[in-house]
Design a protein that fits this description.
Blueprint: E1 10-15, E2 27-28, E3 31-32, H1 33-45, E4 54-57, H2 67-77, E5 84-86, H3 94-100, E6 106-108, E7 110-114, E8 117-121, H4 135-148, E9 153-158, H5 168-171, H6 178-186, E10 191-196, E11 203-207, E12 210-214, E13 221-222, E14 231-232, E15 237-243, E16 249-255
Parallel strand pairs: 1-4, 4-5, 5-6, 8-9, 9-10, 10-12
Antiparallel strand pairs: 1-15, 2-3, 7-8, 11-12, 13-14, 15-16
The structure holds fe (ii) ion (FE2).
Residues 60, 89-91, 159, 198 line the site of fe (ii) ion.
């Protein structure tokens, strides 16, 4: 990686919804989630964009809220010595994440200054709910963070989706106060993109010059456009983002067929 972050593109590896368990061999929706997670990391390391400047994990790190699941996540990533940012999803335990994923190279929530870019990590976690929400305090915190980062390029990262996915069951567990959130984003011209997990599918939409992106899970995917819960047969995935000094974003989703090398 040559040059300072001021004059080159920054590379983000986005992984989401790893759904790890206390046991390494636990299966969920037909896949062993630890195995597919490792296959995604293996794939990423063979990409010319590796090593990324940041690894970003937008929630549902574990499925069973287990300490051992978070420890496995940590052990799989810490030897890369790359900052790993995370926020909680509906399946997570934010207290455990704060305890286990807050010391370098890990960061739980907050903000990251990266050259001319700022990453704002926004928790949408609501205890005991599958849907997400911000509420007055988090909305206020977002407004404050956005004004503190005025004049920079901002990437907002969250678990729950703020735009409908056109899938009734999934849109029933979306971000509840999306209108308030979108109003703030619409009034913040320095926000370049909003990135989420939770939906286990890829999407890329432009709304008033803001990219709204979702990324496939590192395990099983949901069938896009389905009224009721249904699995897609697409393989595990990841997303690369390249953030340019002028605020431009290039992004690509990779689908990973198999961990085994040819
Ligand atoms: Fe989720």
């Amino acid at each position: 990686m040559a040059g300072s972050p001021r004059d080159r593109a920054l590379t983000i590896l986005h992984i989401t919804d790893t759904h790890l368990h206390a046991a390494a061999d636990s299966r969920m929706r037909g896949v062993t989630t630890y195995e597919t997670f490792l296959s995604v990391l293996d794939h990423a390391q063979r990409d010319p964009r590796w090593p990324a400047d940041v690894i970003l994990a937008t929630g549902d790190i574990v499925q069973d809220e287990s300490r051992a699941g978070y420890q496995r996540f940590r052990a799989s990533l810490e030897h890369f010595r790359i900052p790993v940012l995370s926020i909680p999803g509906n399946h997570d335990d934010p207290k455990l994440m704060d305890e286990l994923l807050s010391t370098p190279p890990f960061q739980f929530g907050g903000e990251l200054w990266l050259g001319p870019w700022s990453l704002i990590l926004l928790s949408t976690y609501l205890a005991g709910e599958d849907a997400g929400g911000l509420g007055a305090a988090r909305l206020h915190g977002l407004r404050k963070a956005l004004s503190a980062h005025a004049g920079r390029h901002v990437l907002v990262c969250m678990h729950h989706h703020p735009l409908p996915m056109g899938s009734a069951w999934l849109d029933g567990v979306a971000l509840r106060d999306a209108p308030e959130f979108l109003k703030i984003i619409g009034a913040s011209p320095h926000v370049r993109a909003v990135l989420c997990g939770h939906v286990h599918q890829a999407s890329d939409r432009q709304r008033n010059n803001v990219h709204f992106l979702s990324t496939p899970s590192t395990c099983a995917q949901f069938l896009p456009g389905s009224e009721f819960f249904a699995l897609d047969d697409r393989p595990p995935g990841l997303r690369w983002l390249e953030l340019f000094p002028d605020g431009r974003i290039e992004t690509q989703v990779d689908w990973i067929q198999s961990r085994k090398r040819a």
